[in-house]
């Protein structure tokens, strides 16, 4: 049994490297601030010293969103929801309600492929354990019993979330990084930052024009699945955009010769099985791109394309 686990981002921002050569011509260095949040490396790159404070403020917001949404933190809002009894109204931060709202929308558009109430099943797969063993079918069907969008309700006016069953649990892991990247982008823009890149574990938002590139475009490399880091299958050239990737090789383990990855099909409780290894979505927000990439991975090409088109998003499959 071998555990494969990687934290590197599957979307690589190439502009920074290209930028090194352009620095003298265009002036100004790129300044990258990095923090470890959401169990992954998060970075914000700005191009002017005066933008550093805004980047710090954006990170403060991201850290707060991490604390609120962390499944494993006993005092997070998500844990408060998960520990609550049936029908107990749990007061949570507005951001948690916003994430649940987007998640529920994608759940209904994806015919249940995206489901934050899958948490009891996800934890059975123990991707972070030393030597994970796939759960049994009995364990999976027991955990699936309380999973369904209908089992989680929110009320915006009172800012509360209510569950149908005590055992219903939510995991915002497939949307929180994207949501946080959007919030960080808003803070930078409100502070007057003209150009920046936010990369929260491969959930990327680009702001303004790339000051290091003659055409002003940002270049994002799509990592070739299972290949050496830095080997790209495609380079996206983008203006202001929000991008996310879901890949079967990002977080996975091997057991008795079979690879098990972290994106679960709610219909089976097992990792979604697809003919492709990664999907990259470009959408109007990073929260949407984040959730859509996970949903696409579950749905597969045919139904996934319909879903992505519904949201006016673009996709690249590798
Ligand atoms: P990552 O978080 O590794 O970047 P994703 O954004 O695709 O990858 O989210 C995967 C995470 O979301 C899993 O680790 C798990 O916590 C949760 N998850 C797994 N399957 C689903 C699903 N079908 N719907 C919603 N969340 C899921
Ligand atoms: Mg996702």
How are the strands of the biggest sheet laid out side by side? Answer: 3-4-8-9-12-17-18
Low-confidence stretches: 1-8, 15-27
Q: What is the CA-atom radius of gyration, in angstroms?
A: 20 Å
Report mean pLDDT, rounded to a whole number: 90
CATH superfamily: ApbE-like domains
Query: What's the domain count?
Result: 1
**What CATH first level would be assigned?**
Alpha Beta
**From the helix content, strand content and strand pairing, which structural class follows?**
alpha+beta
**CATH-assigned fold name:** T-fold
The secondary-structure element order is EEHEEHHEHHHEEHEEEEEEEEEEHHE
How many strands? 18
List keywords for this structure.
single chain; 318 residues; alpha+beta; 7-stranded antiparallel β-sheet; 3-stranded antiparallel β-sheet; disordered N terminus; binds adenosine-5'-diphosphate; binds magnesium ion
Describe the model.
There is one protein chain. The protein is α+β, with helices and mostly antiparallel strands. It has one domain (3-317): Roll (T-fold), CATH 3.10.520. 33% of the residues lie in helices and 26% in strands. Strands 3-4-8-9-12-17-18 form a seven-stranded antiparallel beta sheet, covered by helices on one side. A three-stranded antiparallel beta sheet has the order 1-13-14, with no helix packed on it. α4 runs parallel beside α8. The protein is globular. 46% of the residues are buried. The structure holds adenosine-5'-diphosphate and magnesium ion. Residues 113-116, 118, 122, 171, 173-174, 201, 246, 250-251, 262-264, 266, 290, 293-294, 298 line the site of adenosine-5'-diphosphate (ADP).
